[in-house]
């Protein structure tokens, strides 16, 4: 039965809600292996053995929201707040460009101290210095006009995880001021404007059931995003969910495989959270269908303060030399070696989504 569901998923690129639930509850290692084999097959059809890298710049950890799972939530008084100056962000891009990065992801909390105009100027400055690079924004929910302004400034892509497609579950993870319908409105606005859009969710977030994950998968089918970011939930001690259990490596990998088969040409990162819960998380992610990595280019000085969850900065800065952080160049070398070891190769490329390309253009 479960084998038949995998075949149907590959053929039709979607299942019914109840079929997704059956597949998710029917998880076992043999089924996962079979899924990963199909996921690698479709991944390689579109992207070969290439691994795209994105230079992640966490430029502000101020946030007006108070999401129950997130370490940079507004009411967490135990972390120091920082906001990088445009010159410093441009410096990170400069360094990253020299190393071979051709996409920069500007990620931050919803920070009123960084006005839409300031972000637009920043995007313009990066595109001026690096016209051959893509700029991805990941700064939360905003009015459509603001998204349009940033797109006109040159932003290419936008990441906004939907977190969970189930409204009731969404309300259990967020305060009343965060509305599930607004989240989805943002994603559709971004798509209509013309961004390459990424949504996504945490695996094993508190209260998550197979039913919710089935809704998430159906939402992906409906939105048809160019990118999907998923990673395990990892508790952060200074949040209301600080004592909740983490999501599992196995279920995250299984979902990566399902998403790759559903959306064969999607850009799918092996996320930092996946690399945090298991020492081989990034490699295992690639072998389950992922094709993107997002190494951290945030200056060492503030990196520990972007504490979304426990153990994040350690995973980011794992590349140490004599106990000291080894810097972004060495970290990339280590990543390249890790990818090589499982048969993949990090490439110098913008790494755009290959959707809609004819077979001979791939
Ligand atoms: N564990 C895992 N992922 C988290 N995020 C926020 N907090 C956590 C956590 N405790 C994810 C959210 C958010 C993204 C930037 O990080 O999905 O969208």
Helix content: 40-55%
Write down the overall geometry.
Answer: globular
Number of helices: 15
Strands, count? 11
* Strands ordered across the widest β-sheet: 2-3-4-5-6-7
Structural overview:
The chain has 362 residues and is α/β, with parallel strands linked by helices. The protein has helices spanning 2-12, 17-25, 29-47, 86-99, 116-129, 144-153, 167-173, 180-193, 210-223, 249-262, 272-277, 281-287, 300-303, 312-316, 327-341, and strands at 50-53, 55-60, 103-108, 134-138, 157-159, 196-203, 227-232, 292-293, 320-321, 324-325, 345-347. The strands form three sheets. It has a six-stranded parallel beta sheet with strand order 2-3-4-5-6-7. The protein has a three-stranded parallel beta sheet with strand order 8-1-11, covered by helices on one side. Strand 9 (320-321) and strand 10 form a beta hairpin. Helix 5 (116-129) runs parallel beside helix 6 (144-153). It is globular, with a radius of gyration of 19 Å. It starts with a helix and ends in a 15-residue tail after the last strand. 45% of the residues are buried. The structure holds 5'-deoxyadenosine. 5'-deoxyadenosine (5AD) binds next to loops. 5'-deoxyadenosine binds next to loops.
């Amino acid at each position: 039965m479960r084998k038949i569901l995998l075949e149907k998923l590959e053929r039709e690129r979607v299942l019914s809600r109840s079929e997704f639930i059956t597949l998710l509850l029917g998880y076992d290692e043999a089924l996962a292996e079979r899924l990963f084999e199909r996921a690698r097959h479709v991944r390689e059809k579109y992207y070969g053995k290439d691994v795209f890298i994105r230079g992640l710049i966490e430029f502000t950890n101020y946030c007006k929201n108070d999401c129950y799972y997130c370490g940079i939530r507004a009411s967490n008084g135990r972390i120091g707040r920082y906001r990088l100056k445009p010159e410093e962000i441009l410096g990170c891009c400069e360094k990253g460009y020299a190393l071979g990065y051709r996409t920069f992801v500007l990620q931050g909390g919803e920070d009123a101290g960084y006005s839409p105009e300031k972000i637009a100027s920043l995007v313009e400055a990066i595109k001026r210095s690096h016209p051959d690079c893509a700029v991805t924004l990941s700064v939360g929910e905003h009015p459509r006009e603001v998204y349009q302004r940033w797109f006109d400034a040159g932003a290419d892509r936008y990441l906004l995880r939907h977190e969970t497609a189930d409204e009731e579950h969404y309300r259990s993870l967020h305060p009343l001021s965060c509305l599930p319908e607004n989240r989805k409105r943002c994603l559709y606005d971004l798509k209509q404007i013309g961004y390459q859009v990424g949504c996504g969710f945490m695996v094993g977030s508190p209260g998550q059931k197979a039913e919710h994950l089935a809704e998430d998968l159906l939402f992906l089918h409906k939105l048809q995003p160019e990118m999907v970011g998923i990673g395990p939930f990892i508790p952060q001690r200074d949040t209301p969910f600080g004592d909740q259990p983490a999501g599992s490596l196995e279920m995250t990998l299984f979902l990566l495989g399902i998403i790759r088969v559903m959306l064969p040409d999607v850009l799918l990162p092996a996320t930092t959270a996946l690399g945090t819960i298991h020492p081989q998380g990034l490699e295992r992610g690639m072998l389950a269908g992922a094709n993107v990595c997002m190494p951290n280019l945030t200056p060492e000085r503030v990196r520990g303060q972007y504490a979304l969850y426990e153990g994040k900065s350690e995973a980011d800065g794992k590349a140490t030399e004599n106990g000291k952080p080894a810097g972004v160049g060495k970290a990339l070398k280590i990543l390249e070696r890790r990818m090589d070891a499982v048969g993949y190769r990090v490439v110098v490329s913008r790494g755009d989504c290959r959707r809609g390309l004819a077979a001979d253009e791939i």
